[in-house]
Amino acid sequence: MTLLSSPRAGLFTLLLLLLGCDAPDTKPQSAMGSLMGDNLQGYTQVTPGQTLRFPEDHQAHNDFRQEWWYLTANLTTASGQPLGLQWTQFRIALSPKTSESSSVWATNQLYMAHSAVTTAQQHVAKERWARAQPQLAGSDAAPLAIKLDNWLWQSQSQDLFPATLTVSDEQLSYRLALNTSAPYQLQGDKGYSIKSGDGSVASYYYSQPFIQVTGEVTLEGKSVNVSGDAWLDREWSSQFLNKHQQGWDWFALRLDDGSALMLFQLRSDDNQASHFYSARRMYADGSGRNIDSTSAPTDIKMTPTDWQQTPSGRYPVGWRIAIASEQLQLTIKPLNRDSHMPLSVSYWEGPISISGSHQGTGYMELTGY
Amino acid sequence: MNNPPSGRHIGNPHPLKGWQLTLRVFLAHYRQSPLQAGAIIIGIILAVTLLTGVRATNENAINSYSNATELLSQQAKWFITPLPNTPLNEQLYFTLRQQGITHSLAVVQGMLVDEQARRWQVQGSDIIAAMSAASSHSSNDENASSRHRFNGDALPLAKLIAGEPIVLMSQSNAKQLNQPTLTVEGQTLNVIAVDDQLNLGNRLLMDISLAQQLLNKPQQLSYIAIFNDVSAQKVQIEQWLENKAHLSPSDNGDSMKALTNSFHLNLTAMSLLAFIVGLFIAYNGVRYSLLKRKRLITQLQQQGIMKLSIMSALASELLLLVVVGSLIGFIGGLQLSYWLQPMVSVTLEQLYGATILPGIWQWQWLAQATLLTFIAALLACSSLFIELLRQPLAQSAGQFNQQASAHRAHKRQLWVSLCLAAVALIGMALTDHYRITMALLGLVVLSIPLALPWLLQQLIQVIERVAPKGLVGYQIAETKELIPPLSLAMMAMLLALTANISMNSLVGSFELTLKQWLNARLHADLYIRPPSSQMQQIEAYLAADKQVTGIYQQWSIKSRAKQQPIYLVARDDYSVEHTTVLKTAVDNLWQRFLTGDVVMVSEPFAIKHQLGLNDTIKVDVLGDSPLTVGAIYYDYGNPYGEVIVSTVTWHQAKLSTLPISLAVTYQGDLTQLSQGLMQKFSLSDALIYSQARIKAQAVEMFKRTFSITKVLNSLTLLVAAIGLFSACYMLTQARMAPIARLYTLGVNRRQLSLMVTSQMLLMVILTCIVALPTGALLGYLLINKVTLQAFGWSIAMIWDWQAYFEVTLLALVASGFAVALPLYQQTRRPLISSLQSDVL
């Protein structure tokens, strides 16, 4: 799940413009559309009825346009302070054709990674870029590794878990041990997750909402031991938004009854009625229940209650969420209102706390503002 | 021309009011004779244009050295460079990034030759790393100058990183190329033109995936640029790099600045010369316009305007003219710099390997130029103003006592000139530093024109003695009268002529010296520089060829000595003995050199560091042991210092045993040999040079080095010609009345025209004659002092008569036109009006 709002000047702008180059009539203004939508020729399409296979599907799918490995964690420091952590590695295909060059540098794939640590007072976000190159960036199968420079998800087996996640940068670094015993949760229809009311856009999507974490986080020179829970999302597709969709609000919520809730709305540019909602209530035994606006148009209600102005836009950082069929009445509050990510692509991403019918913690991502 | 605006008595007005009134009167005066204001402004414009033009060019180049960024990226803070003879493996880059030094950039460089035998400097980098460093740089620093940002409108990133045959070229180069593709190594490359702001200079930029293949450098890097400050990790990185590569901080262009210092100083000197010549014109204009206003000013004073008001009005007028002239000159200068820059860039790139960024300019240059011009003009004109105000009110604007005072002035100028020359000559004998020599040369340049009026006076007196009486006698006697009004323009002309002649003789002499040196230096028929991987095979191949009569080897690496980059060179014993053109040497040189007892250093290196025989130096790659200088040899056109050691020393130092290049003497058809080599080893012809080709290229490169100086020189001469034209024109116009008087006395128009023209031409010819020895003197000083000290090149002076006659002809044509025009105008109006002009 993720990404994209008004792109800032930077490499990503270039990418968007470049993608626009393939289709000369695409205007840069509709850059998001051009990345996520229009020019699909040559890429593999997401179709229903496919079976996700593990461990193969943990690896990169270079024939799809974009893909990500997305980890968010709600941790507690040794002194009891809440701390949020995010790590994402994106893959972007620049062209559906693989390179014909024999050079080890030649590729049609680009990687970008984001990493952020959030406390009530601080929010530090970092970014890395590299071309796909076995030594620079990519995914390895055995043992499984997802890497970009010295940011590394290193598993002990071909599965994603147990693994160590190491990230190191000037201002922030962390080293986390990740483990789980819960089965993967396939979102949507066995991993086929539709992203619009008419079903024209979809992705392959699976999650692991039940990860136990221990480790050490260093923020601006100060190290703390941390422990807590994390959530991994895996998603790939060749088109993510249709041209009427402008962004999304996405929630990964861990409730105090041991369940987890994945919830998103894709905002349409015309009116609220055509927003697309999708959710899945999930349990550690692998079971769960889907709700979306196609089958239950009025079941999910999401209302912004609080806004925050940031240099990259005005974001709804407080929410009231109701899902009648699941008896959920939740109020969402951010740990740090200023958790915007001023990177090549700007968005808001940070830890939240839950109150109302249930208590809990989670993560929220807001794009397209 | 000099009518008072009204006859009404003004009384004794307030100084401010008087100032205003006087300015208004002056304005009216200039409205009547715009030519006078025009002459002043033209002088200022020309002076400021050349000053600003060269300044912008220079500062831009120097700025480029310090701000040089990695292509499409930001400025590197550290560099990892290969050790001598061990190419940098790309694995180092991967490991570096895996270790967390991620803000780094892998670069591979080289030279490619296209189908039309054009040489292209190629830079291949990890484009993604370059661009992400650039974008992180610009997002960290919102105020980063727009230069650092780029819009990648047309960058075909997908194709670039896929290793497709795509190269980026600066817009201006692409325009010159005028074709969409380049064929290199049999591969057709699509050329994408990118904004000149991306600072590609003359380089071709491509992704490393393509560059490594085209340059035949698989897995190799030329260097790694690091954008973070890694000073804290320096020790660890160095340990890790041990025996693999070298870590060094970016010097922000300091070594490039040191290398190009003398080049830029020469340009500055040329521009100052042009500035002075321009000021001469302006000064002449002011003088003339004051002369024309003498009566007017007297009348103003008689009307009760205070001297202070008149003085300040004159100063204000000058300021206004300076401001207007400087502004136009500033714009002209920027345009000039725009034209000069490609030339300078090419020179700097070819000679020093420096890349020049697109132009920059600053408003403060305008302010400085204006101020400088105003102060210079005020100083130059102050004596005129004071003289004007000292003149008693009762006296009319009589000009008859001028001769006597002019004569006194000429004598004074002669004395000043002699003093300046004496100081310069004594100073030059004492100093070895080219900056001081340059300044002293400035004194010589000033002293030459100062002596001119007196010299002209003397020369004409000599002619007067031998000339027949009658009209010719009158004519020559009158020519003497022309010296004071024309002397300034003549001085400017002399200055330009002298500079031009001296520069021509420098360039001519250098070309000849260079050719002779090349003849001695190049003994083999073919020079080959194969990739080191093929060196042994090629040597074996050549040895097997019966027509090959000799194979000579050369080893070379870049190192440092005396804190400057140098080349350490070794050649086989025969080559060293037979191709080194020695300047001085110790006794028994060859015996001592070949055993490794002494080394030889190039003349430029020796002069720069004041090395003599038996002095010692240390070279980085040879460790701490001091090397004794046993000989100094001539080396031209090489901006780097060079040290030659014997093969014994080379091998002892455990430097690469593989030679870097081979030279071959051959008895058969050279083309066949080189074709054979190219085919057998698939060598590019960029790696194989015949003797003739090296010579041609060396001479070409040298010509480029001087092309910029030549252009500036011609511009200075042009400025002087314009000055001479305007002076002659104004003078001839002013002399319409005496000419008309002669006409009324019965001299016919043809005779008159002939007379006036020949008078002017006589002056110009005499000036050109004076320029002959002064040009030779200046040329001598340029060659034996400035060039020797600045570049370290000994040159035998050659005199170029043809160039001398060319510039003389230009001067004659300019003055001929300047006289002909007013004469022609005069024939078209009634005589009476010319006569009247004297009275009014």
UniProtKB/TrEMBL annotation, chain A:
Domain AttH: 67-238
InterPro entries assigned to the protein according to its UniProt record, in alphabetical order: AttH-like_dom_sf (IPR023374), AttH_dom (IPR010791)
Highest taxon in the source lineage: Bacteria
Protein name (database record): Carotenoid 1,2-hydratase
Organism: Shewanella algidipiscicola
TrEMBL record, chain B:
Topological category with respect to the lipid bilayer: Multi-pass membrane protein
InterPro entries xrefs: ABC3_permease_C, Lipoprotein-release_system
Domain ABC3 transporter permease C-terminal: 269-392, 714-829
UniProt key word Nucleotide-binding: no
Residues spanning the membrane: 263-286, 318-340, 360-386, 414-430, 436-456, 711-731, 752-783, 803-824
Keyword Mitochondrion carried by entry: no
Alphabetically ordered keywords of this record: Cell membrane, Membrane, Transmembrane, Transmembrane helix
Cell compartment(s), UniProt: Cell membrane
Pfam families noted in UniProt: FtsX
Top-level taxon of origin: Bacteria
UniProt similarity note: Belongs to the ABC-4 integral membrane protein family. LolC/E subfamily.
Protein name as annotated: ABC3 transporter permease C-terminal domain-containing protein
Organism: Shewanella algidipiscicola
